Amino acid sequence: MHDIRAVRADPAAFDAALARRGLPPASAELMTLDAARRAAQTAAQEGQARRNALAKEIGQGRRSGADTAAQESEATALRARMEGLDAEAAAAEAAQARILEALPNLLDPDVPDGANEAANVVLHQHGAIPDLPFTPRQHFELGEAGGGMDFATATKLAGSRFTVLRGPLARLERAIGQWMLNLQVEENGYTETVVPLLVNEASVHGTGQLPKFKDDLFVTTDGRYLIPTAEVPLTNTVRDEIVPEASLPIRLAALTPCFRSEAGSAGRDTRGMIRQHQFAKVEMVSITAPDASAEEHERMTRCAERVLTELGLTWRRVLLCAGDTGFGAARTYDLEVWLPGQGAWREISSCSNMRDFQARRMNARMKPREGKGNVVLHTLNGSGVAVGRALIAVMETHQREDGSIAVPPVLRPYMGGLDVIGAV
């Protein structure tokens, strides 16, 4: 959500920022509604002052036996007028809020211009692209060969974009999730958190999924939403809170199932586990003071990068351009991993600085150590990382010609010491 005061202070700059995202100007309509709201509120305040004066006059007149009919008639008319003014102010404010909540975050100045992912900037790469001495197979080819990855049964059970894992592959997925969560908690300082998988409408609105991404969410008959990411419950822990600056930063992590309808992905990645309605993910969320969020963004991204390095994967950090940066983000780094079977880079983690965008929607504030008043918090989130995509990357990167898969050393304690999954 945007601060209407900032729009009022520099409408041209606000429209220029929207133009970077390919959006039309919005300041004129916002300022018209803002002026109507403020005018109605001012008139209502003046009316209230007049009502107070009339009440005093009526009281004095009655005590002295004077005729107060004129004042009482004016007070009655004024009351009706004020009710109308209050309704006008509320309607203008609601219309203003509907526009503001549908507008994306403003981008950091150094986010590169560009309409789509072609304009993203690769910042650095870790490791060389593997040169396997055989034709590598894709993860679903490896997984389906021995029944460890079963899409047909999943389709029978739930429909498309679901997977059944069995045996060593199921254990490998569990190992990846548990190891990643332990890494973020024990070594990177995040607080392990167990959160509800169903949240209320205020929560998904607070982090920006509603109203724009309603079609991507699964909702129950009683109005609760299955979480599309643990970012939603983790970030909303500070909704309507005033957090002492001394307690910041707050760093939270959770390993949860996530649910997305993939409504906008028809025809994309229809085979395999790349794009699923249900998947597991380790999510990192940070709540910071405004002047600390840029540094925290770098730290969070490095925490995700370490996961990929420890798994022996080839990866790169990408700064997303204006047209590819998500709705709520001011700046986003994607981590892309090389998949030998696909012969392509694929996103495996996204780490975003949301600045004060989510906190304004959530009414989440900070009490500074010094000075008066409260300050809007900054929030950040990142994948640490997506479990299913990590499984895919491990399978394709560490596959052998016979179809077996070498288990990365960091995962072997979680696999009962197993160092190779036999041909699957």
Describe this structure as you would to a colleague.
- By secondary structure, the chain is an alpha+beta fold.
- It is built from twelve helices and 17 strands.
- The protein has an eight-stranded mixed sheet with strand order 1-10-11-12-15-9-8-4. It has a three-stranded mixed sheet with strand order 7-13-14, with no helix packed on it.
- Strand 11 and strand 12 (344-353) form a beta hairpin.
CATH topology of the largest domain: BirA Bifunctional Protein, domain 2
Class of secondary structure makeup: alpha+beta
Whole-number total of structural domains: 2
Through-space gap between termini:
49 Å
CATH class of the largest domain: Alpha Beta
DSSP E strands, number: 17
| Beta content | 15-25%
State the helical fraction: 40-55%
Strand sequence of the main sheet, in spatial order? 1-10-11-12-15-9-8-4
Gross CATH architecture of the largest domain? 2-Layer Sandwich
- Name the shape in a single word: elongated
Describe the largest sheet. Answer: 8 strands, mixed
The overall average pLDDT, rounded, is 95
Core attributes:
eight-stranded mixed sheet; three-stranded mixed sheet; 19% strand; alpha+beta; BirA Bifunctional Protein, domain 2; Helix Hairpins
Write a brief structural summary.
The protein is an alpha+beta fold and 424 residues long. 40% of the residues lie in helices and 19% in strands. Strand 11 and strand 12 form a beta hairpin.
